[in-house]
Automatic annotation (TrEMBL):
The lineage of its organism: Bacteria, Bacillati, Actinomycetota, Actinomycetes, Micrococcales. GO terms for molecular function: ATP binding; ATP hydrolysis activity. It comes from Agromyces ramosus. SUPFAM superfamilies: ACT-like, P-loop containing nucleoside triphosphate hydrolases. This is D-methionine transport system ATP-binding protein. One of its GO terms (biological process) is amino acid transport.
Length: 342
């Protein structure tokens, strides 16, 4: 059974001006998130992804549709019961949302105190989490004495304090530099792997999804326009909005402008060969071209790795007799996608 299930969920806000149309922030979304998933939800600003996560956390009610978390229907639940549900859902934020007047220790202890844990339970859990996030020596520091990455580690520890099954990360790395982002993503992977916590990652950054997610939903205009296994969505995006996102981290077939530059710099016929995990090796393609007596060079593209599965597009400038090029490309095209862009 899905840990989180959304069925035909819509969230509408009143019109900003009298006589205006209501604002549909989330539009008829249906998703199932399984236990153990790291589920990425990606979209440009205004796509509805942050609203969606607030619905899952019951911070806002859905206008229509059904939301269940761990088999319990949030849309039918009174506020008193929702407070208990929220204790089982951890949340980390872009701007950390730490209490500036509390120490690192007290920030992590706060949700445990709210939950009514004993002093001994709080002491043991906070010490465990400080060790886990690598901040045991910062327990008595205040947030303004920490770097951005350290603040987010405190945020992760605090979100894990009550041992939630579900962790919501809303743009959790957007305020961090690239190196610190990778450190935080590695920590979230450990959270998922070692604690078995299901994670929903809200982001506008495709490289975050590529680094951490197992599944992804692409949102645009409040709707989920594409979803599924990250490798499948990245390697074969169907929707134009998904294709634009993927293009930020994966170079595909050169655009007309890029092709014009390539033609100026390189002689020969320009061909893009698209690889997917389980097709053929790059080496076998290159050997085929070499055996045909052709010269070639890589002029555009690259290969990407998503959790051990490779895909990508390599654009080559191939030089030689046209008949030999045609024959070699025909043999290669029987095993892998070939696009001649010249």
């Amino acid at each position: 059974m899905a840990l989180v299930s959304l069925t035909n969920v819509t969230k509408t806000y009143p019109a900003a001006e009298r006589g205006g149309a209501p604002v549909v922030a989330v539009d008829d979304v249906s998703l199932d998130i399984e236990p153990g998933d790291v589920y990425g939800i990606i979209g440009y600003s205004g796509a509805g992804k942050s609203t969606l996560v607030r619905l899952v956390n019951a911070l806002e009610p859905a206008t229509s549709g059904r939301i269940t978390v761990d088999g319990r229907d949030l849309t039918e639940m009174p506020e008193r019961e929702l407070r208990g549900i929220r204790l089982g859902i951890g949340m980390i934020f872009q701007q950390f949302n730490l209490f500036g007047s509390k120490t690192v220790w007290d920030n992590i202890a706060y949700p445990l105190r709210v939950a009514g844990a004993s002093r001994a339970e709080i002491a043991a859990r906070v010490a465990e989490l400080l060790e886990f996030v690598g901040l045991a020596d910062k327990a008595r520091n205040f947030p303004d004495q920490l770097s951005g990455g350290q603040k987010q580690r405190v945020g992760i520890a605090r979100a894990l304090a009550t041992s939630p099954r579900l962790l919501l990360a809303d743009e959790a790395t957007s305020a961090l530099d690239p190196e610190t982002t990778q450190e935080v993503l590695a920590l979230l992977k450990r959270v998922n792997r070692e604690f078995g916590v299901t994670i929903i990652v809200i982001t506008h950054e495709m490289d975050v999804i590529q680094s951490i997610a197992t599944k992804v939903a692409v949102m645009d205009g409040g709707r989920v326009i594409e979803h599924g296994d990250v490798f499948e969505v990245f390697s074969s995006p169907r929707n134009p909005s998904s294709q634009r996102f993927v293009a930020t981290v994966v170079k595909g077939i050169p655009s007309p402008a890029e092709l014009a530059v390539l033609r100026e710099r390189h002689q020969g016929r320009i061909v893009t060969i698209s690889f997917r995990d389980g097709d053929v090796s790059q080496a076998s393609v290159f050997l085929e071209l070499a055996a045909a007596g052709l010269e070639f060079e890589l002029v555009y593209g690259g290969i990407n790795d998503i959790q051990g599965r490779a895909f990508g597009h390599l654009t080559l400038a191939i030089r030689g007799a046209d008949a030999a090029i045609d024959a070699a490309l025909s043999r290669i095209a029987s095993r892998v996608d070939v696009t001649e862009v010249d």
